[in-house]
UniProtKB/TrEMBL annotation:
It holds the Pfam family Neuralized. InterPro entries: B30.2/SPRY_sf, Neuralized, NHR_dom. This is NHR domain-containing protein. It comes from Graphocephala atropunctata. It comes from the Eukaryota.
Length: 318
């Protein structure tokens, strides 16, 4: 019995078609990603954690001595000084439920702005026991997690949102734009109340109804009551179609990029390549020799890399 290793014309044709369509499929994935980023494709409703049916988030009746609550619990204003402004939500916050905070009044008399996070301690048990500050007075105790917001984000009418994941990572965003992980380490096995310290130059804040924010984001994706998806398709698809579609090059045809030599090298010094480790952030792309690391242009995080081997004592990395 013999073995025929030849490939039929049909098989060769099928492989050629796959090679031809591979770049097109890649471009369609890019199109889907663009539409997903601007909110034109449905997302997994599981991220909301069923929070649309929850009552609005308001401020708890237990708060710092300098806090005055108004508008039926939606607004917290610090009446004097720069401290004693710790506040909590009136109910526990679900995993992935977003807490929306609007800056109503911002001062320039102090330094620093709000500190925000979560606590697993029921605020009802903290009456007459609140310290001046959330950080570090409360965060040094078990069951309190918070961090200070950068002052550049605190402007009048700006809307901050934040939420915690099952992994205990607290994400935040400004005016509907995700900024990334704010801090980690929150214990999520029990109930969690949002904790906000109306500190420093942040003098008045308002808790917004998450349902209204969701409706606003949906309306922003509509132009004149119609879906803008056709316009996106009209603008993006022809551009992508105009790109040349060529078969992917064979592996043996790809030449290895050689990194340029260092611009300056001291006499007697010897430089040797130190490649990056294969373990890296999800937004990092490595060259074939793993000596060049680049982060995806459209991303700002998950850009960490490691060396492929341990660094010796006294060894310099250029």
């Amino acid at each position: 019995m013999g073995f025929n290793g030849s490939t039929s014309p049909q098989q060769r044709c099928h492989c050629a078609v796959d090679d031809l369509l591979a770049p097109l499929r890649s471009k369609m994935k890019v199109l889907k990603k663009i539409k997903r980023r601007i909110g034109l494709t449905p997302r997994n409703s599981g991220n909301n954690g069923g929070t649309n049916n929850l009552p609005p988030v308001l401020f708890h009746q237990v708060h710092g001595d300098n806090i005055r609550i108004s508008r039926d619990g939606a607004v917290a204003r610090r009446a004097e000084s720069f401290c004693k402004g710790v506040t909590f939500t009136n109910r526990p916050i679900k995993i992935s439920e977003k807490v929306y905070v609007k800056f109503l009044d911002v001062s320039n008399n102090w330094s620093g702005v709000i500190r925000f996070g979560f606590t697993c301690n029921d605020p009802s048990n903290l009456r007459h026991a609140l310290p001046k500050y959330a950080c570090p007075d409360l965060t040094n105790k078990a069951g309190y997690w918070a961090k200070a917001l950068a002052e550049r984000f605190c402007e009048r009418d700006t809307v901050l949102f934040y939420y915690v994941t099952h992994a205990g990572d607290v994400h935040f965003g400004i005016n509907g734009e995700e900024k990334g992980i704010f801090f980690s380490g929150v214990e999520t096995r029990g109930q969690l109340w949002a904790m906000i310290d109306v500190y420093g130059n942040s003098t008045a804040i308002e808790l917004l109804d998450a349902r209204h924010q969701l409706n606003n984001s949906r309306r922003s994706a509509q132009v004149g009551g119609g879906d803008v998806s056709p316009d996106v398709d009209r603008l993006i698809i022809p551009t992508m179609a105009a790109l040349s579609v060529q078969p992917s090059p064979r592996i043996e045809d790809v030449t290895e990029q050689v990194p340029p030599p260092p611009r300056f090298q001291q006499p007697g010094s010897h430089f040797s390549p130190l490649p990056f480790h294969r373990t890296r952030g999800r937004n990092v792309r490595l060259s074939n020799d793993r000596c060049i690391a680049s982060r995806i242009d459209t991303e700002f995080c998950q850009g960490y890399v490691f060396t492929a081997r341990p660094v010796q004592l006294g060894e310099r990395i250029v």
